[in-house]
Amino acid sequence: MLTTATDADPQMVSEVKLDTDSKMKFVLVGASDGDPGLDFTKG
């Protein structure tokens, strides 16, 4: 679970999954069903 917050903006809560040593998926908690989230790959 990852939470980001600032004094001026609302909180953003997400789930981060490490698929492998070089792949990560970032999905917002409470996102609609079928939301693919963001995939990151280390180059």
What does this structure look like?
The protein is mainly β. It has one domain (2-41). The protein has no helices and four strands. A four-stranded antiparallel beta sheet has the order 1-2-3-4, with no helix packed on it.
Keywords:
single chain, 43 residues, mainly beta, 4-stranded antiparallel β-sheet, 4 strands, 51% strand
Quick synopsis:
The chain is mostly beta strands and 43 residues long.
Name the poorly predicted regions.
none
Q: Which sequence of SSEs, written as H and E, runs from N to C?
A: EEEE
Ends distance = 24 Å
**Major sheet summary line:** 4 strands, antiparallel
Report the C-alpha radius of gyration, rounded.
12 Å
Structure summary, number of beta strands: 4
User: How many distinct folded domains?
Assistant: 1
Strand content: over 45%
- Considering DSSP H and I runs of 4 or more, what fraction of the residues is helical? under 10%
The geometry reads as globular
Strand order of the largest sheet: 1-2-3-4
Number of helical regions:
0
Return the average pLDDT rounded to an integer: 87
Structural class: mainly beta
